């Protein structure tokens, strides 16, 4: 008996010590920039949205066809007068700190989005007057006026929910360790290097999560990102260079994923943000019109993007139903540009500081524009700036001309009002027109697409005359990933959703 017990103990000991630790799967994502921050209320960058998609679930989401689908909310109902929206919430959801997600938490988050100083969500929820708790799993949004884009707003950061307990306990330091209700929880961040998220064991939709960890690495150089993907140091990268498409297609270990995006890239002009606006470009619409006429959008597309992008002159692309045909893309006309500058009585050359976020494609776009504009009489000085720093500089008004993109939203409202509405968060140039605000507000309150489009046409007529922003092109989303990664889908908002993805070891 004694021998048996000892042997049994040895056997047990051998079994325990020999049992291999379960190998974890870590998805490594290559980002083109380092996110500004990871607080859904105050975050403002596209790459931040990519990380937040794995960290913070929203009330609603969109699918590949841009249809709204439930996430933390199950349903919504709008009153006949359009001024009350009732939202039913999903039961059994927990935040990463173990606190329950309920109507009180939803109200807390939405109130924070609307009232926190420095919130970038205020404009997105501007028509919400009050949020009420109806019962533990129901909230009611009382609106100042009917607001067509509301549910679309809640499919992005305005719909991301945060833990009231974590926010209250951390205060301003919440941004250092955000706590949400998504499939992954925050683990660590090393600025300008990486962000690590770990799988949340109590996620409400855990059956769709097959990865244990996600590591987002900031690599500005697109060629270096691709090299890391090819070598196996990354599993997926965003913003592949169009010139590298053939390389990816020719590599049997890689897969290319493309999709026309909802966003645009353009030149934002400083009109009223500090004394930096006091220059011919900021003071005279004829000078801004001349700058646009010096630019050949199709040449930029062909030269920099191999013809893969879509030239554009509005916040909606020519392929979008909200594109306004009455304002077609203007062709390049150097003689007319020179005539406008002569009428403006400005001294040539016009020296302008052009702030450019650091990246090979944006630098090349800026260089092409610099050469084009020089023929009309502009002397553009390119100031290449780290991306997050450029956002800060834009907010401070430390620029004259800013080459910057917008990743786009499903509803046209957020593709224009945030950038050209009076006192809105991404209006770096501080352009303000009451006429345009009236038209954009009308578009928000209408529900019929044709009436909304008519209101946007009114706004664009004034924007086209004033030229506070020169739209250049609409990017095509270019992602590449290892064939070891399966289940990846690419909605046109450019986010990486981690549900249903599997990574082979």
Topology, element by element:
Elements: H1 2-18, E1 26-31, H2 46-55, E2 60-62, E3 68-70, E4 73-78, E5 84-89, H3 103-115, E6 128-135, E7 138-143, H4 150-153, H5 164-170, E8 184-190, E9 194-199, E10 213-218, H6 222-231, E11 236-237, H7 245-249, E12 254-260, E13 264-269, H8 280-283, H9 285-293, H10 297-305, E14 310-311, H11 334-343, E15 350-357, H12 360-374, E16 378-385, H13 387-396, E17 401-406, H14 413-420, H15 434-445, H16 449-466, E18 469-474, E19 476-482, E20 485-486, E21 502-503
Parallel strand pairs: 1-10, 1-11, 15-16, 15-17
Antiparallel strand pairs: 2-3, 4-5, 5-7, 6-7, 8-9, 9-10, 11-19, 12-19, 13-17, 13-18, 14-18, 20-21
Helix pairs in contact: 9-11, 10-12, 14-15, 15-16
Relevant terms:
alpha+beta, D-Maltodextrin-Binding Protein, domain 2, Dipeptide-binding Protein, domain 3, disordered N terminus, 505 residues, seven-stranded mixed beta sheet
Describe the structure.
A 7-stranded mixed β-sheet has the order 8-9-10-1-11-19-12, sandwiched between helices. It has a 6-stranded mixed β-sheet with strand order 14-18-13-17-15-16. A hairpin with a 2-residue loop joins strand 6 and strand 7 (138-143). It is 32% helix and 22% strand. It folds into 3 domains: 58-163, Dipeptide-binding Protein, domain 1; 182-260 and 477-503, D-Maltodextrin-Binding Protein, domain 2; 264-474, Dipeptide-binding Protein, domain 3 (Roll). The chain has 16 helices and 21 strands. Helix 10 (297-305) packs antiparallel against helix 12 (360-374) and helix 15 (434-445) packs antiparallel against helix 16. By secondary structure, it is an alpha+beta fold.
